[in-house]
């Protein structure tokens, strides 16, 4: 019974991708994140700018593209996110 | 015997509710998840309800020496607990609150209210039963979906609490029977089952963040801290992962959220928290 992902889950997927599944050390491109995290461009760009503003993602802007990689704070957030996702799941709920 | 069991039940209920509520609060503080916020309210209310009844019993034993709890105290405690059960059920979505079958709606549920409408306490016991049963069913459905074994424990806990609540309510029909003692014992078992998932959490990696003390001020400094966080982030990666265990968990906040708060890392970084726009 698959449902829509919550915004929190989408953020978790984006951060997980930038942590575990990056293209290279510089980070992941927007196109790559769209494919891996399965998010539309408008929604992804909005979430990415928010995550960068909050310091959970770091962006490396070059002439041709921007690459996103997870920051130390992002790793901390993801750790807490994973822990409490399981906690919520124990109570039959989505975080 | 019943008096002792009641004291044990309410003490365990208070402790378990408080523990789960605190864990949910830590989760909410760290992630900003509305689900965890509802769980926090739910379990704090349950804990407060048990505390009220426990204090009532202690007062009856040591202060008034009447040997029986004041009825209004017990009713207040039960109402507060029901509020907590409501939030658990609400978290599971209130859309399926009543059975879809018109037969069950007319025969299965309504009599619970009709029979127990004599006293407020009975009404709230029956409401608690419905909410708990609903929560247990939804949790079982969730287990079927996710196969998360922790959900079995929680579903069992909620089901046992529901059964205990039902027997406790039913014992008014047979006041001198063993029903009430059985009800209390079942509720204790239910509370223990509810606590199992919390006991498995890796507590060494979770701690209350520094933001608990003065979040508002910290959020005002977000812009500054953001810059520092970026600079420090790179430096800390070079230092290795040892520092992470000592750091505060980050929280993400939407830029336009009204109740914007943040949790600065010890070094001045600025993780925020996420406020889902869709309210889930």
- Radius of gyration of chain B over all CA atoms, rounded: 22 Å
Tally the structural domains of chain B: 2
Q: Which descriptor suits the 3D outline of chain A?
A: globular
| Biggest interface, residues from each chain | A-B, 35 and 64 residues
Q: Any idea of the CATH class of chain A?
A: Mainly Alpha
Fold topology:
The complex is a heterodimer of chains A (95) and B (280).
Chain A: H1 7-20, E1 28-29, H2 30-37, H3 41-53, E2 57-61, E3 66-70, H4 72-90
Antiparallel strand pairs in A: 1-3, 2-3
Helix pairs in contact in A: 1-4
Chain B: H1 2-31, H2 34-62, H3 71-91, H4 102-116, H5 120-146, H6 149-170, H7 179-199, H8 215-220, H9 222-239
Helix pairs in contact in B: 1-2, 1-7, 2-3, 3-5, 4-5, 5-6, 6-7
What does this structure look like?
The complex is a heterodimer of chains A (95) and B (280). In chain A, α1 crosses α4 (72-90). Chain A has 95 residues and is an alpha+beta fold. Chain A has one domain (7-90): Orthogonal Bundle (Arc Repressor Mutant, subunit A). Chain A has four helices and three strands. A three-stranded antiparallel beta sheet of chain A has the order 1-3-2. Chain B folds into two domains: 2-205, no CATH class; 216-280, no CATH class. Chain B has helices at residues 2-31, 34-62, 71-91, 102-116, 120-146, 149-170, 179-199, 215-220, 222-239. In chain B, α1 (2-31) packs parallel to α7 (179-199). Chain B is globular and about 50 Å long. Classes of the chains: A alpha+beta (95), B mainly alpha (280). At the A-B interface, α1, α3 and α4 of A face α1, α2, α5, α6 and α9 of B.
In short, what is this structure?
Chain A is an alpha+beta fold and 95 residues long. Helices cover 57% and strands 13% of the residues of chain A.
Give structural attributes:
heterodimer, A: 95 residues, alpha+beta, Arc Repressor Mutant, subunit A, 3 strands, 57% helix, B: 280 residues, mainly alpha, 2 domains, disordered C terminus
